[in-house]
Design a protein that fits this description.
387 residues; alpha/beta; 13 strands; single chain; 15% strand; Spore Coat Polysaccharide Biosynthesis Protein SpsA, Chain A
Length: 387
């Protein structure tokens, strides 16, 4: 503006006048940014550019834990079991044991069929079959050249069959080819193999009212439990078995699903081999659960990549041998998961590493008779072979 013949240019620090109001257009692009940021203080900017990305990254790393911790808010607990007390002592007669359970005694024992899908658990299968072989009429085993995740797999049982000569006369063995469908849900392949096992059970010659054990290799019923069920009359047609984590000095929370082992009185046309809750009856303290009980770190890695819950391997470093060894000795969770419980009290109570157990009482006889071979399964022996 002109004043007394002189030009006076008045400076202003309101750079937003032309962006947010009337003023210069010379530095329009810079002014827009400064105008936008002018409404934020430093704390807000710090939260936006630092806090928010860290929050998103934290959700990415620990989202699974957060979901499991909040389980009581979005999922109700399953229906409780009708728990049947379990009575046993070697000096009590079978007639009295049946009576204690509210059952009668049979004139002759039922036949028992033990059916499993086999992956690579050679040591655990030896312990299982040595525990059960006095009471089982027919062992039924199916293996595939495919893991549940569609990876090519050696026929481990076929390679180690010599170790199982003691059941050869009572063994029905089958092989099913994998489907190798890329990108498929692993539970689809698992279901396919279980259907094939159901057919193999019929080939093995099972008849009505024979007992059929449905469980994974690492879910081992005790021999005296199976002997009780084959001799007692009027037992439930379907009965789940409570299998405790007795066999090793470390445990994994994700394996808190012992009810999946079950025994069925076979009904042609109705009984189907399955691995989920099928009844409300649960016989207490009926055996052992020994998931991830491997001699070698490489076997841990194989199972982690092969079984249906491969989605729990969220990061590649989960498969790092040094990490797996550290997790075993700390008694921590292999997949860095929280307990699968339905109340905050139970979740918090079970958080953190599990103390090692120093009890080796009531373990399978074959294990204790061969401690040099199975030392890694006994208390105080957390170190694993690397190969």
């Amino acid at each position: 503006m002109q004043e007394g013949g002189y030009y006076n240019s008045k400076k202003t620090d309101d750079i937003c006048q032309d962006v947010c109001g009337p003023a210069s257009r010379a530095a329009l692009s810079m002014s827009r940014l400064r105008c936008i940021l002018r409404g934020f203080d430093h704390k807000a900017l710090l939260l936006l550019f630092v806090g928010l990305p860290l929050f998103i990254f934290g959700i990415y790393l620990h989202g699974q834990k957060i979901t499991y911790f909040l389980r009581p808010l979005w999922e109700s607990p399953p229906k409780p079991f009708n728990i049947i007390p379990h009575y046993y002592h070697e000096n009590v007669s079978m007639e009295n044991l049946c009576k204690l359970h509210g059952w009668g005694i049979r004139d002759t024992p039922r036949r028992v069929f033990d059916a499993v899908l086999f992956s690579n658990e050679v040591d655990i299968l030896e312990i299982r079959w040595n525990e059960l072989h006095p009471f089982v009429s027919e062992f039924v085993l199916l293996e595939s050249n495919s893991t549940f995740t569609g990876q090519v797999k050696p026929l481990f049982f076929a390679q180690n069959r010599e170790k199982f000569k003691f059941v050869e006369s009572r063994l029905t063995y089958g092989v099913v080819g994998g489907r190798f469908v890329k990108g498929e849900n692993p539970f689809v392949e698992e279901s396919y193999q279980r259907v094939a096992l159901d057919q193999l059970i019929r080939i093995a010659g099972i008849n009505e009212d024979d007992l059929l054990i449905m469980s994974d290799v690492d879910e081992i019923p005790s021999g005296h439990t199976i002997n009780l069920l084959r001799w007692c009359d009027d037992i439930p047609h379907k009965l789940h078995l409570e299998l405790r984590n007795y066999l090793y000095s470390f445990q994994f929370y994700l394996d808190n699903r012992s009810w999946r082992a079950s025994v069925h009185r076979y009904k042609p046309g109705k009984t189907r081999y399955a691995h989920f809750r099928q009844t409300d009856d649960l016989l207490a303290d009926s055996g052992w659960h020994c998931s991830f009980c491997f001699r070698r770190i490489s076997e841990f890695v194989f199972k982690m990549k092969a079984y249906s819950h491969v989605d729990r391997v969220r990061f590649s470093y989960y498969l790092k041998p040094s990490r797996i060894q550290d997790v075993i000795c700390r008694g921590a969770d292999l997949f860095d998961m929280l307990p699968e419980e339905y109340t905050f009290q139970e979740i918090i109570a079970k958080m953190g590493p599990i103390p090692s157990s120093y009890s080796a009482v009531h373990l399978p006889g074959h294990l204790l008779q061969n401690v040099d071979k199975y030392m890694y399964l006994l208390p105080g022996n957390c170190l694993r072979e690397s190969g």
